[in-house]
Amino acid sequence: MAKHLRTSGDYTIKTGTGASGSNSVILDSKITRVKGDLIVDGDNTVVDTASLTIEDPIIILSRNNSAPADVDSGFLVTRGAANNAAFYWNEGDDTFKAVTTTSNGTGTSIADTALAKIQAGEPAAASDVATKNYVDTSSSSFTLKVAGDDSTAITVDTGQILQFVGGANISTAGSDPDTITIDLGQNLTNIESISSATSNANLTLASNGTGDVVINDTLTFSAAASTPTASAVTKIYNKTAGGGGTGLFFINSNISSGTEGELISKKKATALAIALG
Fold first, then answer.
1. Which of 40, 151, 179, 234 has the greatest number of beta carbons closer than 10 A?
2. Residue 274: left if φ>0, alpha if ψ -120 to 50, beta else—which one?
3. What are the residues whose beta carbons fall under 8 Å from the beta carbon of 129, sequence distance 6 or more?
4. Distance CA 69, CA 63 (A)
5. What is the DSSP string of 118-131?
6. Shortest CA distance to 248 belongs to which of 224, 231, 269, 268?
């Protein structure tokens, strides 16, 4: 026989000393239905059922965490004598983690003992998680081609080593994790020509500190097309020999008002000295 209980205000059932005591209220029925909202105040809620069905599409965890405080939140699976399994948001690391843990869910943090595996489908979109199979397959089909100045292409397959080999006056060295150093030797040999990259640009040879630029062999001057200009520097160049008999001329804007002069040969100097007595 159905019974109804109606009150005009709140209805309280209190056993013993209430929430601070040890007594219980037991509802012994096939189905217990709550037609309004259900609010459970307490530190622990235990649901001992073989199957739990929830209609809500979204479950909110850590609802009152508004700071936000460093509180981990997620799902914990008890595994008997083995470490528990957890999938949770690690607030300190700012990331989701799948782990095994000794935590039992009574605190506000999960202590990781080891990372756990997650199985997923093969990725399709750029933001999908990559599986090991996808990475292995993708990397196995990777092809790297390199070419030298002669445009000859060389294919470097997976597992092969791309080696940078030095040559005359050039040495190479590799260092972890990802550095190749290429050094130009201090003493250059077998160099037949040096030219500037830009048309009409100067080519400068300079020593370090107070050192000199030393020439240990014959220095050849090609004939100059015209007399160069020189401002506060001395330029030496070759032209058709004049009165000095050498064809080796110099010019400096601070010497003889910038008029070029010819270096005189020993023969010409001797003859001039005799003529002048």
1. 234
2. alpha
3. 120, 123
4. 12
5. ---PPP-STTSPPP
6. 224
Segment-wise mean pLDDT, segments of 10 residues, the chain, 277 residues: 88 90 91 89 83 90 81 94 96 94 92 95 93 83 80 83 83 88 83 87 89 91 84 90 91 89 91 85
Do the domain assignments include residue 101? yes
In a domain, 238, yes or no: yes
Question: With contact defined as beta carbons under 8 Å apart, do 219 and 205 qualify?
Answer: no
Could you give the number of structural domains in the chain? 2
Q: What is the pLDDT of residues 229-274, one digit of tens each?
A: 888 889 999 999 998 999 999 999 888 888 999 999 999 899 888 8
Single out the residue in 93, 119, 145 at which a domain terminates: 119
Domain assignment of residue 224, yes or no = yes
Q: β-strands 84-90, 95-101: how paired? A: antiparallel
Cα–Cα distances (Å) from 82 to 20, 85, 98, 106, 153, in that order, read 34, 9, 16, 18, 56
Domain boundary among 102, 119, 136: 119
User: Under a CB-based contact definition with an 8 Å cutoff, are residues 107 and 70 in contact?
Assistant: no
